[in-house]
Description:
By secondary structure, the chain is an alpha/beta fold. The protein has helices spanning about 40-55, 65-95, 120-145, 150-170, 180-190, 195-220, 225-255, 260-265, 280-290, 310-315, 315-320, 325, 345-355, 370-385, and strands at about 5-10, 20-25, 30-35, 100-105, 110-115, 295-300, 300-305, 330, 335-340, 355-360, 365-370.
Amino acid sequence: MASDTGTQTVDRSTRRTTQGAFRLLDVFGITITLDYSWLIIFLLVLLSLSGGYFPFHFPGHTLTVYWLTGLIATVLFFASILVHELSHALIARRSGIDIKEITLFIFGGMAKISKNASDPLTELKIAVAGPLSSFVLAIIFWAVKNALTPGMVQAVFDYLAWINVALAIFNLVPGYPLDGGRILRALVWWRTGSEARATKWASDIGKGFAWALIILGGIQVFSGSLIGGLWLLLIGMFLRGVAEGGYQEVLMRQALHGVKVREVMVENVVSVPPDLPLDELAQKYFLKYGYGGFPVVEDGKPIGIITLSQLGEVSDERIKTETVRQAMTSIDSDLSIDAQASLVDALQTMMQIGSGRLLVLEGDKMIGMITKTGLVRFLEIRRVLER
Ligand SMILES: [Zn+2]
């Protein structure tokens, strides 16, 4: 069964919108994307309904009827997950937290929110919205079912009613990153005033639940239920990772709180001109300085960033003929940050766009660069000095 993994701030394991995902449509200004991994769960659900459930319970129909009925049920099931995620997103937006994208992927749905809630009540409202919408959907599907005469069509709505109840209950397990974990986190945060402690609780229970799924999955695999077991194993591993990451992110955010980008940035950044040939870039910059990336500056203004991994993707012939301009990532406001911004913002921007470095701007002039490695080192130094 597919799960929903709640609203999540985009972490390093999630890629930018366009890679590995297919843009489906925009609803209320929110882009709905389908990750390619989603196709696997879509086909599995479709297969189990059209090839198993319907033929078993309603024999005597043609294949076309089974596949069509299965397809309708499957599409409505994933539409239900979308409604669940949209509910999180719309409540978040009402609280001033922007959500630009909802992704359906192999483990269900995920609303990518731009930042975490800054107070427990907001967190609570956002978290509750999802399971609540699933329960409401279940009631609607149940009512439709009751209005229909017994048969395969009625069975579709019966299935949808129960799958939505299951979705709501699974998500109410009080372990982060599930909605129940977020609800618990909000309540503990509200009672104790400590976001870090609340997150530790929710994340520990989340990890415990994840391990339970992993163990259960392992037992199932060994007792012969391969696909179902593997499925639990994978969901468990995924949830464990997010639960761990969520706690670390909160700790990091607290440590970074109140520190400005200007205080941690690298000044005197070595920049490269856009018309530099790539082979010279390799020899005179990457090999010489040993950095992972350089800003590209033209007439004193930053116009892009070129990284070692970008250079690594360029073929040998292109390295001989092309220039930095052809291989760099052009700058948009995403790749830069204001010198007065806080380190929390810097970290959030980096995670959102999946970049390890940002140019630091004062007006439109580049005055430095801030890297994720630099942030981590800053945290380490601070930790050592504080002890
Ligand atoms: Zn949810």
